Model the fold of this input.
Amino acid sequence: MRLTPLIGLFCTSLLLAPLVHAETKAETSDQGHEKRIAWFREAKFGMFIHWGLYSIPAGEWQGKQVLGLGEWIMHNAPVPVKDYVKLADQFNPTQFDAEKIVQLAVDSGMKYIVITSKHHDGFAMYHSSVSKYNIYDATPFKRDPLKELADACAKHGIKFGFYYSQSQDWHEPNGAGNTADFGPDEKKDFDRYLTEKSEPQVKELLTHYGPVCLMWFDTPFMMTEERGSRFMRLVRSVQPNCLIDGRLSKEVHGDYVSTGDNVVPNKSMTEDWEVPATTNNTWGFRKDDTDWKSPGEIVFKLVDVASKGGNYLLNVGPTSAGVIPEHIQENLLTVGKWLKLNGDAIYGATKSPFGDEFGEYSASIKDHAGKPIFLPRTDWRCTTSKGKLFFTLFRKYYPRDGFEIPAFKTKVTQAYMLSDPEHTPLKIVVRDGVRCVQLPRSNPDPMAVTLCVELADDKVQL
Ligand code: FHN
Done:
């Protein structure tokens, strides 16, 4: 059965809305920040991996479909701790192959990988000495897949980071979120959970897996300023070059803004930012969700995000055998082929100097709160790097009578298609005072094409 996008919408907006602050602030004042964030600005595109015990039930418990996100099945079914832990006995993902996953990321044009080291279910996907509830000690698998991934990433030059649910832990009596088994959160000794499990596990991750590019915290329930600061100090003291995402604590800002899940802002942001996004409607594998984003949709989102100055962290959810579903692998590889030709428009590129291309607020249509709705435009997006503007034109938008460059003062020296290895100069004509690039007669890639416009100056003067 196919999960409808409506279910996805239900999951992300209704079920989780109270858990996620849509946008956060980034801590940009400390001196190490510029050094830490440099690779992230260059990378733009990362692979998020949600993988855990929840990939076994894969959206179904005792023969019944459980609505919601795959990784939330324990909470949503609900499954009591005493039953959920039994999943560990069956978890033997022998087809897990770190090399293959990293190779997929490389071939898809992704520059960093962030994997769930412990999600809200509390199960560690690595060999932890802090809790035996981990993939090495509690399953027949007897391997540490995160160590294997860390090694494969180092070999292939891919940055490696950890997702860690610092606050919610449905396995622990004092962790947040499991009120069904352990009663209300307010009555728990939350600091005991933090000091006895969460903080020591974060320390383990930062100590045993080589350089960690990013600690990706999530759902900061009860994460006061004092608690958030403890984590911040811990990460900075063990790995000063490791980035912290924007979901550690409301008061303690990480290195960049994390938007809500699948939320791409309507305009550029001044701070560094990242959107975590799904390739279907769940993060952890669900067998009934085959609503995959097409390569064209992924390319559009990636360019849209880059044109607003952000990073796109795109999720895959491996099965309980440890394999990323075939269909999404194929789609990602198509994206990778596109990036091989057009990657200059993404990697290290910065946001659009324009902005009108993003769309505008409707003069007449309002949402349920009475606010004008945003009508996005999807014809083209612009990114820029030193002395260059990249205009990526999507799908049916391929103006055969010429692409009208938005107005700016800087002299244009030449224009060519990025996918043309010869960079054959395209004719530029001026029509009614507007510079217009004559595109090749036939569209080289109906999914998306990038036109590079070179300037006489490093920066465009509007
Ligand atoms: O509750 C989690 C969810 O399972 C998933 O991990 C996402 C990824 O951004 N974060 C939380 C919801 O925002």
Summary: The first helix runs from residue 5 to 15.
